Amino acid sequence: MGHVYSQYLGDPAVTPDHTKGPTFDPLYGYPGGRKERVMIATLEEMESAQLPLNKRDYCAHLAIDHRACRQRVWPLTYKCAHEKHTYLNCEYADYVLRLKEHERERRLLERAKRKAERAARAAH
Amino acid sequence: MAARRLLTSRTLIGLPGGLPGLLPGLYPGLLGLQVSRNVGHWNKDWKPKPYPVTPEERAEAARKYGLRPDEYEPYADDGMGYGDYPNLPVVSAESRDPYEDWDYPEHRRNFGEPVHVDFDMYGLDRINASQKMRFSMQQYALSFFGVMAVSIGIYYYLEDKKMHWPVLPKQYPGDGAVHYTFEPAE
Fold first, then answer.
1. Which parts of the chain span the membrane according to its record (chain B) (predicted)?
2. Is the entire prediction scored with pTM above 0.80?
C-alpha cells in the first residue's frame, strides 16, 4: 500500500514504475559482477511439452518435470508432491527476485534524488 | 372499453384473487363461473365507435362513457385519435386520496368512473404524472447528471492508477536479454 500511495499521491519521482524493467545499469554497484540467470529448458523441449507461453520462464524445466509426473500418475496426483514443491519454490524465488529488483530500483531512485539535491545546493 | 373491462375482471367474480388469471382451466372454468381468463381480456363490443360528428352522436357518446355532454371531449380526429373515447384529465392513482373509501382501492377508482385511455400507465405501480414533485426538474437533472459526471470522472481519473504489488515485471528469457540474480559472480 505504501508504494501505491507514494506512487500516486506521495513522491512519484522515487517510486519505480511497476510496468517497466530496471532503468539503472544492472551491474551498477557490483564491482565483482552479478551471477547471470541460466535457462535450463531449451526451446525444443518447451515446444515439445507444449508449455504455455507465460510459463516459459527460468523455472520452465521444473514445470516440464511436474507436468510429466502428473501425466504419468494421473489421477493419483498426490504422488507428484516433490516435483510440485520444487517448481513452486523456484517460482517463489523468482518472485522474491522481482521484489528485490523493485527495491533496488527504489533505492537507486532515492539516491539519484539526493545527489540531484546536493548538486543543486552546491551550485548555489 | 376499459371500464367494462374492469367490471368483468376478477375482482367482481369473488373468487380467490388472481385465480382465474393465473390458473386457466381450474374449477371456475369448469363450473362456468369464469367470465375472463385474464385481466387483459378483450371484447370486440368494447371498441370505441368512430369519432362523433353530430351533436346527437356526441351526447350519446358522452352518456355511454358516464360523462356530461359539456365535459365530454374526444381526442382530435387527426389519424392519431381514439375514435369517440374521451380525452380525460390525467390523474394518477397515486395522487388520489389514499384514505377515501374507493370501490376499487387498488386502482383508487369508483364504480362507473370513466377510465383514462392510458389507465394502465397511471396505476399505483407506475407513473405519477399529476402530483407536484418535491424538487424542481432542474434540481433532479442536476443531481442525476452531477452524480453520473462525478462517477465517470473518477473512473477515467483512476483508469491508469492501479493497485499492484511492489514488484518489477517478470523476467522471461528472450532474444539477447540478460538477467541477473543478486548473488556475486564467481
1. 140-158
2. no
B182–A56 C-beta distance less than 8 A: no
ipTM above 0.85, yes or no: yes
Interface contact flag, A18 B164, Cβ < 8 Å:
yes
Cell of B152: 465517470
How far apart CA B151 and CA B157 sit, in angstroms, is 10
- CA end-to-end distance (rounded Å), chain B: 98
Three-state SS for A51?
coil
Report the C-alpha gap between A10 and B171 in whole angstroms: 28
Angle between helices A81-123 and A60-73 (to 10 degrees): 160
What value does the mean pLDDT take over residues A36-61? 95
Instruction: Kindly indicate the confidence band of residue B27, based on its pLDDT and cuts at 50, 70 and 90.
Output: low
Q: Are B26 and B19 contacting, i.e. CB atoms less than 8 angstroms apart?
A: yes
Amino acid code (one letter) for B159: E
